[in-house]
Write the structure tokens for this entry.
Amino acid sequence: MASKPVNLVIKPRGRTIKKLPTEATTYLQGSTADLYQRIAAESGISIHRLRLTKGSDGSLVPNAKDFTVERTGLRSDSVVYVKDLGPQIAWRTVFIIEYLGPLL
């Protein structure tokens, strides 16, 4: 059985994001990781800087390959809020700064 395409309305949460698409089309059986990749590619922001939440209840849309769009509860014309989390640094960098800093 082929999955039906779903149109999602994309809105920014917080500051406006340049080049953020106003809508995205995906499939119900498609993974949420594909949705993250599509929005990241169109907006020009790294996938690690994005957080997607549902407009209905504000719950997080996970960035996982084994999590389908249908499983999140998103339907056609659902609102998805996108937030830019800003630059992310690795935990190793934090570790080095935290423990090496006082020694210097």
